[in-house]
Design goal:
Largest sheet of chain B: none
Number of helices of chain B: 4
Largest sheet of chain A: none
Helix content of chain B: 55-70%
Helix content of chain A: over 70%
Number of domains of chain A: 2
Oligomer: heterodimer
Shape of chain A: elongated
CATH topology of the largest domain in chain A: Rna Polymerase Sigma Factor, Chain: A
CATH superfamily of the largest domain in chain A: RNA polymerase sigma factor, region 2, helix turn helix motif
Radius of gyration of chain B: 42 Å
Structural class of chain B: mainly alpha
Radius of gyration of chain A: 18 Å
Number of helices of chain A: 9
Shape of chain B: rod-shaped
Number of strands of chain A: 0
Distance between the termini of chain B: 128 Å
Largest interface: A-B, 48 and 41 residues
Chain lengths: 197, 131
Amino acid sequence: MRPARAFGTESAEAETQLLRRYAAGDRTAARALADRLVPRLLQFAARMLGDAAEAEDVTQETMLRLWRQAPQWQPGAAQVSTWAFRVAANLCTDRLRRRRPLPLEAAPDPVDGAPGAEARLIAADRAGALAAALLTLPERQRQAVVLRHLEGLSNPAIAEVMGVGVEAVESLTARGRRALAGILAGRREEFGHDESQ
Amino acid sequence: MTNRNERPAGADAGDAAAALEAAFAALRTEAPRPSAALMGRVLADAEAAARDGRRAGLAGLFAAVYRGLGGAPAAAGLAAATLAGVWIGASPPPVLDRLAGAVWAAPGEIDVGGLFEPTAIAGFEIEEADG
């Protein structure tokens, strides 16, 4: 597993400095901050929503809110990355709720939770299979798993993003991993071979 | 590659964990990359937000000064005083010339005679009743 890259003190301070410089009128700081955050927000939103266009919208909206927040940014109040992921997570939640009247947690069968998910699992490669499987997880599990295993955030950082305790994060990621492992195992059964080799 | 039917059941959990880790690694390498268009929109937003912020900051400064002066009554008084100043500057009453002459005159030559006659103030004429 990769280290929690965004929440090291050095990285967090660098992002805060960039935001301050942007607020002071430094255009290069905006570019540098966007280079750091946009790819990560885009990946997070893409894995949460499974839709590239919507993921771009969420990323742009999150960054816009960050730009607007910059002049009032309180040092020490929150880390820039944490704040941005929290905003992005909320925007994704809004879109998912608009998309489905029932919450994902109510989905009875994770494999069949998204239209065409099974077909995608069969047809896609290993990464594609996991991406599709992620979309079948309940939303909170998906958030925790993506932030932990794709973005490399620490459990305390994820807890801050999601507004829950660290134990809840551990539980969500464990359940999510179990569900994903089950889905991928089912796929291996379909192909009749072991992909872990 | 191994046929699943020939593997012991105890290997399943390990296989599943290994497969999941491999899939996470594969997915991380296939992270979507931001398009140039997206980065352009994000940076354009940054420009616009900074512009709006500067405008708001200037408006906030004026608002702070306005509040510091004492609000509407003080601002009205200040405006009236400013207008009076402009009026006096554009059309100075003769009394000011005489007063200035008195101030700048040599010591001992000050003549204040008629300085305070009511009709001496041009632009502030006071009508006198004709007998």
